[in-house]
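Interim report to the steering committee. The following record documents the input for D-aspartate oxidase (370 residues).
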Amino acid sequence: TRPTTHWETSVGARAFCGFQDCFSRLRSMDPVRIAVVGAGVVGLSTAMCVSKLVPRCSITVISDKFSPDTTSDVAAGMLIPHVYPNTPIPTLKQWFRETFDHLFAIANSAEAEDAGVHLVSGWQIFQSIPAEEVPFWADVVLGFRKMTKAELKKFPQHVFGHAFTTLKCESPAYLPWLEKRLKGSGVLILTRRIGDLWELHPSFDVVVNCSGLGSRQLAQDSEMFPVRGQVLNVRAPWVKHFIRDGSGLTYIYPGTSNVILGGTRQQGDWNLSPDAEISRGIFSRCCALEPSLQGACDIREKVGLRPFRPAGVRLQTEFLAQDGRRLPVVHHYGHGSGGISVHWGTALEAARLVSECVQAPRTPTPKSNL
Ligand SMILES: Cc1cc2nc3c(=O)[nH]c(=O)nc-3n(C[C@H](O)[C@H](O)[C@H](O)COP(=O)(O)OP(=O)(O)OC[C@H]3O[C@@H](n4cnc5c(N)ncnc54)[C@H](O)[C@@H]3O)c2cc1C
């Protein structure tokens, strides 16, 4: 288990008695104090982008859970973007491209294994020809093409498919890797549950809210709800190609040591316990696509709650105010089913919003309307 980071050890404060006593008040030449709430893929990547984009700041990541206990750790980690209803396709494509480029560089470096990022090739298959034969992300992934008749022979129930190479980003390795790099660049990491973002005033000058589903409470965003996902983590080292049914409901994603079999999308279901009947269904659907999986062993069930927001990712600055004092909060949450695929692109955008807050901290900005 992770040792709780105490303020007295990390910043030399007297005794731990809440945020108020931890830091001296902002002086004009002091670095800007930035708190990032959340340590899933969104929080850690945001902290990293802020550290690169915002000069002279001190960053603290505060979260009640860290890897391997976040939703991000359950993700299959495939870079295949999901459409968000209110996000224009060019914006979504930019987020995906920035994420792909960032991870591609890692996959091409000596860090690839530690970071859990690697290329993977395979097929996305359809039982009828999709409305969009060539998806908007086709020129971001590598070697995108329609499947040949010979390839389709492997899937007798399917009539059409895409073949391409994309990236797989395995959070149980990627999150600790990010955390290590953050610590190495002086970022403080604190295990703590936040009940209300205003708790962070006046200890911090800017707060970035990357609390995923926690934003239901922290941002009073009642539109946030879980989309439950159950997957199986199995050993089947002979499976080298990914296979994804076009609906996105059945998938086989080989990784560095295991293969992830999925899945489910259960809206509004908060149950984190695996359901044996669902597991049997996943296994039989995946075996129908890849019969050799009958020989898979070490089957482990995992459940995660996707942080879903009907309007899509919220990237927005809000100014909390009490008694004439105010606290800029950059909201960055609501990545639903596709957070791994776009995290670096949205983190860069969040870091730009933080940079605006730092440059013009006293400029009045209208309150957000959720
Ligand atoms: C089964 C499954 C498969 C998936 N597969 C893919 C995939 O292949 N590709 C893809 O792109 N995406 C995939 N996803 C989606 C992806 O996992 C999410 O979009 C992404 O992980 C969201 O990241 P996040 O950091 O916003 O949330 P989280 O990982 O949930 O992180 C939220 C953080 O906030 C902290 N927090 C919350 N409330 C508080 C509080 N009050 N105080 C302090 N800390 C708080 C939490 O402890 C946590 O650290 C999948 C998801 C599931 C469940």
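The first helix runs from residue 7 to 10. The committee is asked to note this result when reviewing the revised timeline.
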